[in-house]
Amino acid sequence: MRQTFDESTDPGFGPRHVPLIRAAMARQGLDGFLVPHEDEHQNEYLPAANDRLAWASGFTGSAGAGVILKDRAAVFVDGRYTLQVRDQVDQGVFEIRDLVEGGVPAYLETAPKGAVIGYDARLHSPQALDGLKAAAARAGAALRAVAVNPIDEAWGAERPSQPAAPVVPHPVQYAGEESASKRARVGSAVAALGADAAVITAPASIAWLFNIRGGDVIRSPLPLSQAVLRADGTARLFLDPAKVTDDLPAWLGNQVSLEAPEALDAALADLAGQKVLVDPAQSSAWYFDTLAAAGAAVIRAMDPCTLPRACKNAVEIAGTIEAHKRDGAALTRFLHWLATEGQVSPPDEKEAVAKLEAFREATGLLKDLSFDTIGAANGHGALPHYRPTERSNERAAMGSLLLVDSGGQYLDGTTDVTRTVAIGEPTAEMVTRNTLVLKGHLAIARLRFPAGTTGSAIDAFARAALWSHGLDYDHGTGHGVGVYLGVHEGPQRISKAPNTIALQPGMIVSNEPGYYKDGEYGIRIENLEVVMPAQAVGTGDRPMHRFHALTLAPIDRRLVDKSLLSPEEIAQFDAYHARVVREIGPLVDGEIRAWLEAVCAPL
């Protein structure tokens, strides 16, 4: 199996490792140290060698932060991880605090006056760092950049090696555009912003720009590297020679200089006197400091690859559609198994995860999972980012819900889908609350919206039915998704948090409202949707965008209360299921085809 059920940390990490970190801090004259979750590439999912917060505290979530002072420490998480963090972190060492409400800045305001708190400039964006410095100053403390990260020093020889997965060409039949063409148009965008060059540090941007893929980041085909793109479309790509495959230099061509990472410092120094674009949200403060020291004029602007990467071209969309059909057939086989064998002998979480992975593997085209499958039975369903382990594994109980959030990486697309399935007879409350979640999901799926609409402007549509019953969920409604890239991709998203990026044609975004009852069950219904070009609506005078569902798999009808749905919602639900039969039906046969037609019959 690709997914394992081993635990990479335990609550003993804090008691064992924090004293070592404090000793390293003391040797540098530090009274504290900031521990972000992000690494040198601002990654969400990290190579083991860069997961410093996990090594320091035991917390393995994909978002969080830590602060270690001489006499106390804290870990900060958002609403997705409030239960997980208490399971993974020793609260005798770390106080658990909210990442959003107050967060690290509020904690720094309680630092001792005169304290010197260290930070690694390679791990913090300048945007985040500005707020942290201001908070420390309010306490009379000061932040100081370190030359050597105390965690790295404390970790020592036990620290895993940096990943060195082969970097390979990503054929144009999947990318839809030659790298030279991408570099030329992105270079023109750089020039239009008044810059001579751009420093690109986001692995997804580099993979997209150069039409390459790697394997340095778990579940994502990303190469850890950096690049300098000039306004004329030529580039310098800094890549560990151990990753360079035989055909890569010829694939990159003469306009791309392939260099070792050790040459990066000199390359930044070569930009002295030039105007250089750097993204303050995706590149660390170290780049800004280094360029300023070299005498370059830094232009703070969005990574120029971000929007072009997010707006998929026709080839990428066509490939994604095919990937979702293939993936939908695998998921349908899994759901059939749950509806038959799984109802007679309910599976445990590990069995469910393994079975689904086997169905995807049987396609013969699976490159990897797009993230570790969330197979959450019983009360674990209330943990939005739960991952089963040997220790936590539970068998689904009769009368319970099994939440399965999963996805696959294929050369032509990345999938991410959640289905919640009743094991045995669900309670009336489960059915009601699942139907409220479904109403929110349907509201987003049928929405029409004008150009310029952001995800934050439509988030409430997904929550309105839940709100009317005094219910809500503590995560975003949707995130961007790449094409054989990261399963979480910006800049688009659907969430309560303010977002200035409009939803544009070709963007792929998830539609995943949910509901979670602590200790009892969780519900989430997730499809991926692609934003379609604006078209006229009836006799209206303004064209409207809409979503087109990419994900095709049945939704458990046993968890739907038809009386809570409007005629419009019933028609929409039935139309979606009719499409599932039409497009997935030919990919399955026999008993599974008959079952699919039955569970997708009109309400």
Automatic annotation (TrEMBL):
<dbReference type="InterPro" id="IPR000994">
    <property type="entry name" value="Pept_M24"/>
</dbReference>
<protein>
    <submittedName>
        <fullName>Xaa-Pro aminopeptidase</fullName>
        <ecNumber>3.4.11.9</ecNumber>
    </submittedName>
</protein>
<dbReference type="InterPro" id="IPR050422">
    <property type="entry name" value="X-Pro_aminopeptidase_P"/>
</dbReference>
<feature type="domain" description="Peptidase M24">
    <location>
        <begin position="322"/>
        <end position="531"/>
    </location>
</feature>
<dbReference type="Pfam" id="PF16189">
    <property type="entry name" value="Creatinase_N_2"/>
</dbReference>
<dbReference type="InterPro" id="IPR036005">
    <property type="entry name" value="Creatinase/aminopeptidase-like"/>
</dbReference>
<dbReference type="InterPro" id="IPR033740">
    <property type="entry name" value="Pept_M24B"/>
</dbReference>
<dbReference type="InterPro" id="IPR032416">
    <property type="entry name" value="Peptidase_M24_C"/>
</dbReference>
<dbReference type="Pfam" id="PF01321">
    <property type="entry name" value="Creatinase_N"/>
</dbReference>
<feature type="domain" description="Creatinase N-terminal">
    <location>
        <begin position="21"/>
        <end position="137"/>
    </location>
</feature>
<keyword id="KW-0645">Protease</keyword>
<comment type="similarity">
    <text>Belongs to the peptidase M24B family.</text>
</comment>
<dbReference type="InterPro" id="IPR029149">
    <property type="entry name" value="Creatin/AminoP/Spt16_N"/>
</dbReference>
<dbReference type="GO" id="GO:0004177">
    <property type="term" value="F:aminopeptidase activity"/>
</dbReference>
<keyword id="KW-0378">Hydrolase</keyword>
<dbReference type="Pfam" id="PF00557">
    <property type="entry name" value="Peptidase_M24"/>
</dbReference>
<keyword id="KW-0479">Metal-binding</keyword>
<dbReference type="InterPro" id="IPR000587">
    <property type="entry name" value="Creatinase_N"/>
</dbReference>
<keyword id="KW-0031">Aminopeptidase</keyword>
<dbReference type="Pfam" id="PF16188">
    <property type="entry name" value="Peptidase_M24_C"/>
</dbReference>
<feature type="domain" description="Peptidase M24 C-terminal">
    <location>
        <begin position="544"/>
        <end position="603"/>
    </location>
</feature>
